[in-house]
Amino acid sequence: MYTQALDLPDPEGRSIKAVPPAHGMPADAALQTRFDEKIDADRKIEPQDWMPEAYRKTLVRQISQHAHSEIVGMLPEGNWISRAPSLKRKAILLAKVQDEGGHGLYLYSAAETLGVSRDQLLGALHGGKAKYSSIFNYPTLTWADVGTIGWLVDGAAIMNQVPICRCSYGPYARAMIRICKEESFHQRQGFESLMTQMSGTQAQREMVQDSVNRWWWPVLAMFGPPDSDSPNSALGMRWGIKRISNDDLRQKFVDATVPQAGILRVTLPDPQLKWNEERGHYDYGAIDWDEFWAVVNGDGPCNKERLATRVKAHDDGQWVRDAALAHARKREARQRKEAA
Amino acid sequence: MSDVTNEWPLWEVFVRSKQGLEHKHCGSLHAADAQQALQMARDVYTRRMEGVSIWVVPSALITASEPQDKAEFFEPAADKIYRHPSFYAIPDEVGHM
């Protein structure tokens, strides 16, 4: 589901060192030219192909941030699995959270084709060095939040992710195609859940409105800093990693979402939101970028809790991973002995 | 934190989407052994009935052609255009052949 400013600077992320491929060493001009020609012709780059070190690093950072977002993104919604209001909603939520886990796995696999190990990637996340989407550092206070996340957060993610299906790096593009196929269910189940609540009691309608009020601005910020403040974007565009700018994606999302809010009969918490006939788009108010950067840099409402939960789950599972590996090695040794 | 040598090995996953079609590579995953790799592949790659059969292969056992040898490795086929049916001119009245 959830990507955001996927080119977020990751200054401490240097603990991840992409291992250069065996044949990619001398960045000589001929290799660079061949790479540029492939990009210009909109052809795919595959793991064994030569690529500039900066391209590799950018991809490792972006794909791993994306993978981390999927995995951490399981937590806010996972919070409601045991308290879903019906068996049907619980089954739906379980399936959605399982999808997020699957999406994280597709993406970690794609990142690993660039010469980093899974342990390195997880180590960077658990050590607080790697970024993930800012949106997951907001709390899910009510059941309505589960619906709102599906409608708005997954809706924003779809806007962001569809263009990445055409990314120049083959394994990333293929992972994204798989992910995008599964996203539509996420958004639709959320919208339908909110529709159901809106046809309920006054208290339920108020709960939905409150939820939309809380999530709207953080969701707009998810698309990342404005184009004027996205230094990596131009290079990402040149390399065919990024296809549409942050501001253009954000505008597309606002234009698509305002009519949906009307159907849902909720208001969006922005007095400046109105149709601009001349532009053919909705105008919207100013986003609080100070809050965005505070959340990205660790000071959001749930940053510590999310990371601690994630680290605990990983540490608690260590004995299982160790035991499975020990079992496999033992059995392999026994088979070898029997064969001898 | 476990070190790299304690990472579960990597497996490549191939899924047959429908009886009658070939297995197709769809991604990779980490698993301790083959049986676990199959179960994980089912959960990760076929949650919506995308497959009727799965193969898993340890990634380390795959031998791949080298991309920088692409030219000479595949070159022998490039100049043998007589291997294609369009190389042969046949009178129109023969019809489809």
Model description:
The complex is a heterodimer of chains A (340) and B (97). Chain A has 13 helices and two strands, in the order H-H-H-H-H-H-H-H-H-H-E-E-H-H-H. With 340 residues, chain A is mostly helical. The longest helix of chain A has 29 residues, at 170-198. The longest helix of chain B is centred in the middle third of the chain and has 12 residues, at 34-45. Chain B is an alpha+beta fold and 97 residues long. Chain B has a three-stranded antiparallel sheet, with helices on one face. Chain B starts with 9 loop residues before the first strand and ends in a 19-residue tail after the last helix. Chain B has helices spanning 34-45, 70-78; strands at 10-16, 23-30, 53-58. The interface between A and B is medium-sized, with 32 and 24 residues.
Short summary of the structure?
The complex is a heterodimer of chains A (340) and B (97). With 340 residues, chain A is an all-alpha fold.
Task: List descriptors.
heterodimer; A: 340 residues; mainly alpha; 2% strand; B: 97 residues; alpha+beta; 3-stranded antiparallel β-sheet
Q: Largest interface here, residues on each chain?
A: A-B, 32 and 24 residues
| Helical content class of chain B | 10-25%
Report the β-strand fraction of chain A as a percent range: under 5%
Helix content of chain A: 55-70%
Major beta-sheet overview of chain B: 3 strands, antiparallel
What gross morphology of chain A would you assign?
globular
Shape call of chain B? elongated
Order of helices and strands of chain A: HHHHHHHHHHEEHHH
Structural class of chain B: alpha+beta
Structural class of chain A: mainly alpha
Using DSSP, what is the number of strands of chain A? 2
Lateral strand order in the biggest sheet of chain B: 2-1-3
Strand content of chain B: 15-25%
Reported for the largest beta sheet of chain A, the result is:
2 strands, antiparallel
